[in-house]
Structures are given as structure tokens and as C-alpha cells.
Specification:
Nuclear Transport Factor 2, Chain: A, six-stranded mixed β-sheet, about 50% helix
């Protein structure tokens, strides 16, 4: 029965850890460590299994945040969160039926653009934001989870909320518009059509590419429609020569993205941020160590 209880909450635990860490691998490790703690716990003394498990996972994720941020200081080039196929259950060690409530919690909040903003918060502020603002955990429970006073949690929540609202992208495009723009991007890149690509980009569009020193990527953000378009076409041209190439639009982090696989292995994920009908930002993840959340082509 203990395994069934844990499995029922595994998606939620993964989502909490992933939003706190921005890493699929680290989130999986947190879920596994939470399972070990749960297995050794006196479960008869646990009144609310969901709250108990979220508390453990949150503390474990917070412990990892400090060391993760230190590693990112020496990262080669821009650091982006790991893309994740929305709706997929990457917690293979703890499979279970999808909980609709948990599925609803994986949406815009885990978009790559929002996760990039969360990286600018302190570890404690990020934990408070995720638990309080995203998952709606009561202030008293957040305070108990993090070992802080309720007053401190309210102050951190206020600072984090203002910080995120000031920096997060302005998502004004509906899902259908996002999909249509993403399809135009894909068609233009696949066809090498510079004019069509420029027509989809905002004049001040910014492309951030994460190769982590493992594969070719720009070491600084690329700014401007002309430069971004030529860079994107160059990347597309390299990929077209690979054997077994498959490119499709997939639901990544709550929105449409262009995903490529070669010989069954993920190659890259390109997530556009659409504002006023044009692409304002492109987030390209190419580091092979960050693509496990994309799985294999369906």
C-alpha cells in the first residue's frame, strides 16, 4: 500500500522538484530520495501523505539548489532549464496513474521562459514562490516545510512575486496562435526561407542557445531578427544532413516547441515566446545532457 500511496503523488513530487531545480535529472533524483525517506518513515504517524511527501521533496530540492547554482557559475555559455514534454511522466521509478489535479499544475508555470526568471531568485525565494504561488500551499505549511516563520514566508513570497511579474515574458498569444507561429517557424527553417522566417520574428527578438560546451552553440544571446534568422537557418541546415532526422512540433513545458531527434536520440528543443503575433524570444537547448526529458519520437 505504501508504494501505491507514493505512486499516486509521484507526478506532483516531480513537478515540485522540477520547478524548483529546472533539471529533469535532479528532479528524478529528488523523487527517488523522497521514496527512500517515505519507505523508512513511520507512516502510521503521517496524517496527510500528500503534504508529508511534498514537504520531503521540497526540502531535498532546496538542499540541491545551492550546489546547482554553484555549478552553473562555471557553465559554458548561457544556462537554460531542461525541456520537458508536457504530460509525459518521466518518473519511471515510480509509475502511477495520472492525477488530473497534478496534470493541471504543469502548464505555463513550467515554461522555459518562466523557469529562466525563477533562476534569478534566491533559493529560498524560489522555493516559496513554487510552493505558495504555483501550488497554492498555505503559508503556514510553507513555513513549516522551509523552517521559516510565517512572516518571513509572506515577505519572501511578496518579493518573489513582484520580481517574477516584472521579468516574466508577457504571454498574450492564445494556444492556437502560438501553434500557428511555431508551424511557420518550422516551415521557414526547413525550407531555408529567410524572408518567411524574418516575417515571424519581432525586430528585437533574442535567441538564447544552451550547448553547455558539449555541442556548438552561441556563447552569448543573439539579438535582432536578421542575426537570429541566419543563426537559426544555419542550425537547421546542419541538422538536415543527419541520418534518421525527425522534426515535429511537440508540447514542451506547457507550450508548442520545435523538437528534433536523430537516430532516435533527442537533438534539440526550440521554444518560442510569442507576443503580439511575433516571436519575441527563442530558447534553444542543444546540450545532450539536458534532453532526456524529450524521450524518443513517438
Amino acid at each position: 500500500m505504501s508504494a501505491d500511496v507514493f505512486a499516486a503523488h509521484s507526478r506532483l513530487l516531480f513537478s515540485v522538484a522540477y520547478q524548483m531545480l529546472g533539471s529533469v535529472a535532479d528532479a528524478e533524483d529528488v523523487v527517488q530520495d523522497t521514496w527512500l525517506r517515505w519507505s523508512a518513515a513511520d507512516r502510521e504517524a503521517v496524517a496527510d501523505a500528500r503534504a508529508y511527501l511534498v514537504r520531503i521533496a521540497s526540502r531535498l530540492a532546496l538542499d540541491r539548489l545551492g550546489s546547482a547554482r554553484a555549478r552553473r557559475e562555471s557553465y559554458v555559455g548561457p544556462w537554460l532549464p531542461e525541456p520537458l514534454l508536457t504530460g509525459a511522466d518521466p518518473v519511471a521509478s515510480a509509475p502511477g496513474p495520472a492525477d488530473p489535479a497534478d496534470e493541471a499544475e504543469v502548464g505555463e508555470q513550467v515554461s522555459l521562459a518562466v523557469l529562466v526568471v525563477l533562476e534569478t531568485l534566491s533559493p529560498a525565494e524560489r522555493a516559496v514562490f513554487v510552493l505558495r504561488e504555483v501550488f497554492g500551499m498555505p503559508t503556514a505549511e510553507v513555513a513549516a516545510t522551509l523552517g521559516r516563520t510565517e512572516s518571513a514566508v509572506r515577505q519572501m513570497a511578496h518579493r518573489a512575486r513582484e520580481h517574477v511579474q516584472a521579468r516574466r515574458p508577457r504571454f498574450d498569444a492564445d494556444r492556437q496562435t502560438q501553434r500557428e507561429i511555431t508551424e511557420r517557424l518550422l516551415a521557414a527553417c526547413a525550407g531555408g526561407d529567410l524572408d518567411a522566417l524574418l516575417a515571424a520574428l519581432a525586430p528585437g527578438v533574442v535567441l538564447v542557445s544552451d550547448g553547455g560546451g558539449k555541442v556548438s552553440a552561441a556563447l552569448r544571446p543573439i539579438v535582432g531578427a536578421e542575426k537570429v534568422a541566419r543563426f537559426a537557418l544555419g542550425v537547421a541546415g546542419q541538422g538536415l544532413a543527419l541520418p534518421g532526422l525527425r522534426i515535429e512540433i511537440a508540447d514542451v513545458n506547457g507550450g508548442p516547441a520545435i523538437v528534433a531527434w536523430a537516430a532516435g536520440e533527442p537533438l534539440f528543443s526550440l521554444s518560442p515566446v510569442v507576443v503580439d503575433g511575433l516571436v519575441e524570444q527563442l530558447l534553444l537547448v542543444r546540450n545532450p545532457e539536458k534532453l532526456r526529458g524529450l524521450g524518443s519520437p513517438g
